[in-house]
Amino acid sequence: MVKKLIAGNWKMNGSLAANEALLGELLQGLGQPGCDVAVAVPAVYVGQVQALLQGSAIALAAQDVSAHDAGAYTGEVSAAMLRDFGVRYALVGHSERRQYHGETDALVATKAQKALAAGITPIVCVGETLAEREAGQTEAVVKRQLAAVIHAVGACVTEIVVAYEPVWAIGTGKTASPEQAQSVHAVLRAQLAAASTQAAKVPVLYGGSMNAGNAEQLLAQPDIDGGLIGGASLKAQDFLKIIAAAA
Fold first, then answer.
1. Is the overall model pTM greater than 0.85, yes or no?
2. Active site residue 185
3. Which of 47, 87, 189, 227 is deepest in the core (most CB within 10 A)?
4. Could you say which of 94, 103, 132, 185 is catalytic?
């Protein structure tokens, strides 16, 4: 059975003072967690957070990574640069990147490749919009998104993490029911199994408004191996409750 992973995504939130306070409270209450824990922070704070997390049980994650290695790509941050700061995970293909920055399946797959090549584990985000769900396209959409990454990374598929984030449930307060989430996770698990005999090693996280109140029910599902946590990761006590539910 794969070890559960709880990854907080701070999105575009934080300040030097707020980050120090949040992580101080988290580290004080964490103890020895029964699951893997990570926080994905804005790029400008990677250095600060690396120092604050030094020697702790919380891994450092980035919210994005460039599809390029180096060069004239203003504003981009490469996988090698992130690795310089001890980044362990990088989100790729978050729905906000797909929606607001026009990221395609092919671009997301390239980003996953670049992360892996630098020794960083990509957290590959997949998920359908409300319109796609209502049109009965959920399975087709998530399989298409994941297939691009599987095709690009080949045998390294066992080194990725997958996060299912129904777009209609992100930041809306709506959550897929545990049964709805499990049914999609089962589809993703079967797709991974078809690509590799070692697919059981790949954690499949749920990322649609998981919070302290619903984490236990969601994490009890057989194919939900953790959570990608948005708003609740900015509240230390809520994040600690979710981590405890994953133990």
1. yes
2. no
3. 227
4. 94
